[in-house]
Design goal:
alpha+beta, 3 domains, 3-stranded antiparallel β-sheet
């Protein structure tokens, strides 16, 4: 398979070519007038070719809009592209094909796929892209827009299978926990697939991410349980620090002397008071500390 790369087509300013076209038309008119006035048809050998050249010359004018390209093919051979906007004249025998260079979006449907841990999830993404090589886009694939859609969806599936939806370990990347890393990975993955057709990926982002309906409730309960466990862990860590500070301050200020048994009792009471979810009812000891 021949891999084409975009080249700049030979062209001429449309205004200069328009002047040439007017000269040709004037020459045709003068020659017809001359033959009519002198009643001589011998000059038809010059008028007919001149007329044919004038008509063919008029088919070479093209107008290129901003952010578009005209791809030229001459008798089945690619001869270049015109990217610069404006009024141009090119080979009139060339067939021109229009291709937009504007940024376009591919908005994927919700794709159901298993994540790294085998959990079914739903994911969708938006990929912004544009053509940077018109020759590759038109001649290397049958339909480059369809190619972009298929390859982008394939990259999204591969991305979802490479990460867990939610990581148990905070140091491990996940689809939900590391959105910036995920979109950068998606952009690189899509770009590697689309580079062969002269397409540049300018941006990518996840537009939808959720567990599949059949496990959504179960996973929600698991997330709630994980959140509760994490919160309780923080509470216990804080309570231990507060108890440690209380014992240290009592000892440093010689407020009361506690043996190991009383320290254990005090630690137990403080931990219950600090960690318990319900309001603790204090018991006032009206006797001595050891009664």
């Amino acid at each position: 398979m021949q891999n084409l790369t975009e080249i700049t087509a030979k062209r001429m300013s449309g205004y200069a070519a328009l002047f040439v076209a007017l000269v040709l038309l004037a020459a045709n008119a003068w020659l017809v007038y001359f033959m009519a006035m002198n009643k001589e048809v011998v000059y038809l050998w010059a008028e007919i070719p001149l007329f044919i050249v004038s008509v063919i010359f008029m088919f070479g004018f093209i107008i290129v809009q901003p952010n578009e390209a005209k791809v030229l093919v001459l008798f089945g051979k690619y001869i270049g592209s015109v990217r610069e906007d404006g009024f141009w004249w090119v080979n009139p025998f060339a067939i021109e094909q229009h291709i937009s260079l504007r940024i376009r979006n591919f908005n994927s449907e919700k794709i159901k796929v298993n994540d790294l841990h085998g959990n079914p999830i739903e994911i969708a993404a938006v990929v912004a892209w544009r053509v940077v090589d018109s020759a590759k886009a038109l001649f290397d694939v049958e339909n480059f827009e369809e190619f972009v859609a298929i390859q982008s969806e394939t990259a999204i599936r591969g991305l979802a299978s490479s990460y867990p939806y939610d990581a148990q370990d905070e140091e491990r990347s996940s689809l939900r926990g590391n959105p910036q890393e995920i979109v950068e990975h998606l952009k690189r993955e899509v770009q590697s697939r689309l580079e062969v057709v002269g397409v540049e990926v300018t941006e990518s982002r996840i537009s939808h991410l959720a567990y599949a309906q059949e496990i959504a409730q179960t996973m929600l309960r698991r997330q709630q349980a994980q959140a509760i466990i994490a919160a309780r862990r923080k509470i216990v860590e804080g309570a231990v620090g507060m108890v440690e500070d209380a014992l240290r301050l009592l000892s440093e200020h010689n407020i009361v002397e506690l043996d190991e048994a009383k320290k254990a009792t005090m630690v137990n009471n403080l931990m219950v008071a600090l960690v318990s979810e319900s309001e603790v009812q204090p018991i006032i000891n009206t006797g001595t500390l050891y009664q």
